[in-house]
Amino acid sequence: MERLLIILSILMFAMTNNAQNYNKLTEFEKYVIIDKGTERPFTGEYEKNKISGTYLCKQCNAPLYSSNDKFESNCGWPSFDDEIKGAVMRVPDSDGSRTEIICNNCQGHLGHIFINEGFTTKQTRHCVNSVSLNFIPKGDILPDKISANRTETAILASGCFWGTEYHLQKLEGVIATTVGYTGGYIKNPTYKQVCSGTTGHAEAVEVVFNPDKISYEEIVQLFFETHDPTQINRQGPDIGTQYRSEVFYTNNKQKEVAEKLIEILESKGFDVVTKVTPASVFYEGEDYHQDYYDKKGSTPYCHIYTKRF
User: Using CB atoms within 10 A of its CB, is residue 271 exposed (0-12), middle (13-18) or buried (19+)?
Assistant: First the structure.
């Protein structure tokens, strides 16, 4: 709990500090963009907008969508079947079933994304609150994007989470690490339950990092260089599905990075079994597992650095 409060304090400080530079929001705009609320259907300013132009994040001016990708879905909110490349981040919704979409620059709430509904050939619908957007007609000058000192999150599993955390937390640019459980079937699993191999969870590490100081790719490279990604459901003497090798991505960019690195390893002759899976709920592990090797003053027994890239 203490570690969780520390991480939340770091993130809240960053959000508060950045909010001073963002566009001022009304109370209703804050309700949707900050508190992740939803405007009533068929009431938004841009739901029926057919003018050519660019849709921006209301909070930070980041370009998000082109009018070329807007279509009529009659769902009550503006719908787009694509975003401007790299502008929108997909994250698991707190309801445990939907996928939320947020501005990749300021993390402001936009709405939700749905797939395979048959509306367009892209089989994708970004369902966006009008109040989260500003619209600039084609030909008008776009305002400057307000940059943010962002944090991002990586979730990685490579056997015993003690060893995974030991290496990742030492990288410059990593703000905080938390060991825990993800990818399973039950809520709030305990270490004992996960070790039974019946919950489906992997022992994993959640890494909060500053992307201006270290890239996601650099983190995943170290992940692959500090465990054996060719072992199925084990690392050394630790055997079981909870010790599997898996990357839990929070957006498509992370997925692409992981798959690219796997392709590089395979081209070098490694028979990689690492799974690449959408992130789901991450449950923080018990306090005595956090910073395990630092507390013990020792080093991992099966997570040994081996240069592979």
Answer: exposed
Cβ proximity of 113 and 124 under 8 Å: yes
Q: Where are the domains of the chain?
A: 22-137, 152-296
How far apart are alpha carbons 32 and 110 in whole angstroms?
8
Rounded to two decimals, what is the model's pTM? Answer: 0.57
The angle at the Cα of 24, spanning 18 to 25, to the nearest 5 degrees, equals 110
The catalytic site residues sit at: 127, 160
DSSP class of 42:
T
22-137 fold: 2.170.150
Least reliable range by pLDDT among 1-10, 23-32, 260-269: 1-10
From 185, 190, 163, 193, select the one nearest 284 (Cα to Cα): 190
Q: Does domain 152-296 have CATH number 2.120.10.70?
A: no
Residue 93 in tokens: 């919704």
Distance in angstroms (rounded) separating the CA atoms of residues 269 and 18: 45
